[in-house]
Write a structure and sequence with these properties.
heterodimer; A: alpha/beta; TolA/TonB C-terminal domain; five-stranded mixed sheet; 16 strands; B: mainly alpha; Rna Polymerase Sigma Factor, Chain: A; 8 helices; about 75% helix; elongated
């Protein structure tokens, strides 16, 4: 065979080795058949290497005897193994995976799963049994108890007064004298001078058109006790714990907690034409950790002034609960917002008592 | 050997391998050429054929515990695995792998395996330089130029060696069949 034919044969071999079609030459038709057989002949090195690999795999599987499992009628012709099974070996069968399956591993895995499930169940049960759902709410809004139940003046009322004669006893309850433009003598429950040279009617300095409850028995209208009669622990005459000849805890010749005469304390109270403020945003206060752990429950009572803008101010605790709940109640109520109290169609500041209930359900 | 005796031997071999995986080597030797021949005729490259053949035997070893003798030759089971892997590799959405219990197909595979064994023997009988050229060309897929450098001969001389080696093989096969 000449060189040109040998070259063409080699080109055909190259084409077949590369998987391309090659021209069929009658001259070397049989030689190309041999080429095809050689192309499909396994390499002796591959045959030996695969045998060694199979034996190594068999070594790894020696510790796990293969179990004979009943196969379906098609199992002879239809392989069970797939790529997926070789990656993820079955749990209970010897499987087609390459990982050994040991009974001890299965037992440990099973035990760990049981423990994990038990922990999940126990934690759920514990959460149900020990739930601390904090339910806090405003129990009620009640009129402030520190103000005097007096008629409401047309405008904002200010001032106040107070007095006393440094008695050891608190002032006794009674009626306040009438208001007058000037005061000749302060009121007294206990008259120290039975025979004065100049007799004058006791009065308080304040708007004369404000009519107080008429009574001959003087005292502090807001005093807690009726007897024994006392002018109170204040000074400079008058009744109460204040000073300067008035009635109440203030400073001046008026009535109430203010100063300089007149009536008051500065803010309205609910009632007498003044509506109660209505909470419109009242998030629940948090429970303190200490109180939650102790499962402590109860009510905190606060005194607050709700301004015309609906914001609370001048908060103070009037009934303490402790365990950090007082502060939690204050923190929460500071955030509250109200529809303000109304009087004669206008928003007014009003003093209210707020009761915050802490409950564990 | 009669078919029944062959079946009995094969069954004993399978049961022995199920008890002791080391005995799977006997099944491997008995079926390697048939599996390789089946796979090699269906893929494009030698590397692919080797990968699939290895995968067939590894899966067979792993799943041998599930094999139950039902009278069909063990190689049919191996070729079933090969068929499934081929379908999977070609990404055919098939749940019905090619069933290879057909006697004609099994006979064709057996014939291919026998030819492989024959060519393996004939290769060993070639002169060393001719055998080296064919091994280089077909097992290592090297070019004429590379082989010429290795053998320190001209490319033309290597082509001549390749041609004579192929002729020798063809003549040996003819002699066998005559």
């Amino acid at each position: 065979m000449n060189n040109s034919l040998i070259d063409r044969l080699d080109e055909s071999i190259d084409a077949r080795l590369a998987g391309r079609a090659s021209a069929a030459f009658a001259e070397f038709h049989e030689l190309l058949w041999v080429v095809d057989e050689l192309r499909h002949l396994p390499r002796p090195a591959f045959h030996a290497a695969l045998r060694a690999d199979i034996l190594r795999t068999a070594d790894r599987r020696t510790s796990l005897p293969l179990r004979s499992e009943p196969a379906s009628p098609v199992s002879v012709a239809k392989p069970r193994g797939t790529d997926y099974e070789s990656i993820i070996p079955p749990l209970f069968a010897s499987g087609s995976g390459s990982l050994p399956i040991r009974g001890s591993h299965l037992a440990v895995s099973f035990a760990l799963h049981v423990v994990a499930l038990a922990l999940v169940a126990a934690s759920g049960w514990w959460m149900v049994e020990n739930r601390t759902v904090v339910r806090t709410r405003v129990a009620q809004l009640i009129p402030g108890s520190s103000d005097y139940p007096l008629p409401i003046a047309p405008g904002k009322i200010g001032g106040g007064g107070g007095g006393g004669d440094q008695d050891k006893m608190a002032a006794s309850r009674g009626a306040a004298p009438r208001f007058a433009a000037e005061q000749l003598t302060p009121p007294a429950v206990v008259v120290r001078n039975e025979n004065p040279k100049l007799v004058a009617e006791p009065t308080l300095i304040g708007p004369p058109d404000v009519i107080l409850s008429p009574s001959d028995k003087y005292g502090d209208p807001m005093a807690a006790v009726l007897a024994p009669p006392s002018n109170g622990t204040g000074s400079r005459g008058g009744i109460g714990s204040g000073s300067a000849g008035g009635v109440g805890s203030g400073t001046g010749a008026g009535l109430g907690a203010g100063e300089g005469g007149g009536l008051g304390g500065g803010v309205y109270t609910v009632g007498g034409g003044v509506s109660a403020p209505r909470p419109i945003f009242d998030p629940d206060p948090e429970y303190s950790d200490e109180a939650r752990k102790a499962k402590f429950q109860g009510n905190v009572e606060l005194l607050a002034v709700i301004g015309p803008d609906g914001r609370p101010r001048d908060l103070r605790v009037t009934r303490s609960l402790g365990m950090g709940l007082d502060q939690k109640a204050l923190d929460a109520v500071w955030k509250w917002r109200f529809a303000p109290a109304m009087k004669d169609g206008h928003a007014v500041a009003v003093q209210v008592s707020i009761e915050v209930a802490f409950r564990l359900y | 050997m009669k078919a029944t005796e062959h079946d009995a031997d094969e069954r004993r071999l399978v049961e022995a391998a199920q008890r002791d995986p080391h005995r799977f080597a006997g099944l491997y030797e008995a079926n390697f050429r048939r599996v390789y021949a089946y796979v090699a005729r269906r893929v494009g490259s030698r590397e692919e054929a080797e990968d699939l053949t290895a995968e067939v035997f590894h899966q067979a070893l792993a799943g041998l515990g599930r094999f139950e003798w039902q009278g069909t030759p063990f190689v049919a089971w191996l070729l079933g695995i090969a068929s499934h892997l081929l379908a999977h590799r070609w990404q055919r959405a098939t749940t019905q792998p090619e069933v290879l219990s057909d006697d004609l197909e099994l006979a064709a595979v057996n014939e291919q395996a026998e030819r492989q064994a024959l060519f393996a023997q004939l290769l060993d009988r070639l002169p060393p330089d001719q055998r080296r050229v064919l091994e280089g060309r077909f097992f290592e897929q090297r070019s004429i130029r590379e082989l010429a450098q290795e053998l320190r001969r001209s490319e033309g001389a290597v082509k001549q060696l390749q041609f004579r080696a192929l002729e020798n093989l063809r003549n040996h096969v003819r002699d066998r069949h005559e």
